[in-house]
Structure formats: structure tokens, C-alpha cells
Amino acid sequence: MTEPREQSDRPDAVVTDLVEYLIVAMPDLDSLGPLAAALVEMVESAAIRVLDLVVLVKDHEGLVTARELDTVESMAPLRSLAFDRMLSEHDIGLASLALRPGSAGVVLVTEDRWAAPLSAAAQHAGGQIVGGERIPAARIETALAERPEADTTGGGS
């Protein structure tokens, strides 16, 4: 098992085992507005902290451009947030592969503050959160479709 890391008692300290990245693909820059509103709501409710955010645009020829928040009107609600630069050019290049030509997207690095009690409990017991992964939607949809009809509660066995 990995050695647990000491977490700072500072309220602004990042709980390092709760950091993840997300790539959100959208049809175009204008469609990012609801995403920005949802992110603001999640930050205000302390569910997450956005550590880094990059807006990407992939033109119809496949050329990718990273855009600053102040140039993307649909992302205006996020302009008051302060971001650390955590994503490298290499990270951004890899993330851009997930976008279709003629689309836009956002690459986020977030701290999942909602999971802080889980992290603290693990650390208190000498452990830490060491991994996680998004399960592809198609895989979940298949698993849900294969459930017996009687199991509509969402509970496990």
C-alpha cells in the first residue's frame, strides 16, 4: 500500500488524493454556458474546487486552439474563480484527442471536496484513496439494461 500523505490543516490546502481531471465535449463554444453555470453551483456548494480549466476549440480541419476564459462569453460565470496552472501542453494535446472536429470542450482539474470525509477517514486509519476511474456510459447502460425487472430500487444484493 502507498504511504498516506499528511494533509495540511489549512482550509485552502488541496487534498491531493481527491484530484481528478475531466474532459467535457460540447457541440460549440456557445453550448458551454450550462456547463459553466453547473460548475459555479458545484464550487459554491463546496462539492468541488476547480484547480485548472482550459477551453478547447477544434476546428473542422482538426486544429485545436486553447482559449482564455475572458474570450469565451459562455464561460463568463467562471471568470471570478482563480485557477492554478496544472495542465501541461502535453496534457492539453492528449485531451484534445477526445474532441470531434468542429466542436469545443473543457478540460478540468478538480478537487472532489465532497469526498473529503472519506479521504480523512482513510488517512486516520493509515490509508489513502489511491485510484478511481470513470466507467464508460455505454458499459453502465448495458449493465442497467441487463438487470432483472424486479430490481427497481437501485439497491445492491
User: What form results from the Cα inertia axes?
Assistant: globular
Order of helices and strands: EHEEHEHH
Rounded mean pLDDT is: 89
Low-pLDDT runs: none
Radius of gyration: 18 Å
The helix fraction, in percent, is: 10-25%
Sketch the major β-sheet.
4 strands, antiparallel
- Order of the strands making up the biggest sheet: 1-4-2-3
* Number of H/I helices: 4
Oligomer: single chain
Q: Assess the beta-strand content as a share of residues.
A: 15-25%
Secondary-structure-based class equals alpha+beta
Number of strands: 4
Distance between the termini: 29 Å
Structural write-up:
Strand 2 and strand 3 (64-67) form a beta hairpin. The protein is an alpha+beta fold and 157 residues long. The model has no long low-confidence stretch (mean pLDDT 89). The two termini are 29 Å apart. The protein has helices at 33-44, 89-96, 116-124, 137-145, and strands spanning 19-26, 49-58, 64-67, 103-111. The longest helix has 12 residues, at 33-44. Strands 1-4-2-3 form a four-stranded antiparallel β-sheet, with helices on both faces.
